[in-house]
Amino acid sequence: MSEPEETFYTEERWQNWLTRVEEEELDPENEDSARLLLNLQDDAAIAVAKILSAYNEDRLSQEEAIEELTEVREIVLAEVEFDDEEKLMLIDGVQTSLVCVFYAAEEYIAAGPTEEASVDEYVQAAADAEAAEDLDAALGYLVQAGTRIIDGEELDMALVEDIEYGLVSEWVNGLDSLQSALSDPEVVEEDGE
Q1: 190 within domain boundaries
Q2: 74, 85, 108, 122: least surrounded by Cβ within 10 Å?
Q3: How far apart are CA 73 and CA 108, in angstroms?
């Protein structure tokens, strides 16, 4: 008899978060609003961390792990239908941050951690690539950085203070959520406690 299949993330879970975002008065300057969005992001990152753990502990094969990631990615990155433009933008920011998380996890499962450079070097290379308007390269560097983070290397968020706000800072923000999720994969409570 095989073990019951582990559920890493569900459409319903994501929908619950979206419903909360839709119902609350959101002000990005307000700490509670910012925390709600961060929890939404962290919650998805925790699902990714759990898939990575299951893969690293041989509870999932490479193919199964990629399938699970794809499933979570499709739920989290699906287009959101909100009437409120500002909330749509805020959710879009969360989704943007998570893009790099999914790619990094897939890359890690497919090819293992990169050995070529440190997380800091990759983040710097990504910032330089963004400055040169080469966003594909920037994302590529951060995906490599992500594989190192998954492998246990620290991402120093002080680096980000020097990076101009843009896609790279959003993606690094996602990697920070992933790093937190990997070190403490506790479920973020949906009830706001």
Answers
A1: no
A2: 85
A3: 15
**Tens digit of each residue's pLDDT (9 = 90 or more) over 144-161:** 999 999 999 999 988 888
Flag whether 162 is in a domain. Answer: yes
Task: Look at the block and give the residue holding tokens 């790279």.
Answer: 168
Assign 3-class secondary structure to 23-83. HCCCCCCCHHHHHHHHHHHHHHHHHHHHHHHHHHCCCCCHHHHHHHHHHHHHHHCCCCCCC
Separation CA 7–CA 105 (nearest Å): 17
Per the structure, the count of domains in the chain is: 1
* Mean pLDDT across 87-116: 95
The Cα–Cα gap between 57 and 51 comes to: 10
Residue-by-residue DSSP string for 82-118: -S-HHHHHHHHHHHHHHHHHHHHHHHHHHH----SS-
Whose CA is closest to 132, among 175, 168, 172, 173?
A: 168
The Cα-based distances of 41 to 8, 37, 64, 112 in angstroms read 15, 6, 23, 24
- Structural domain harbouring 103: 11-183
In a domain, 3, yes or no: no
Q: How far apart are CA 50 and CA 178, in angstroms?
A: 10
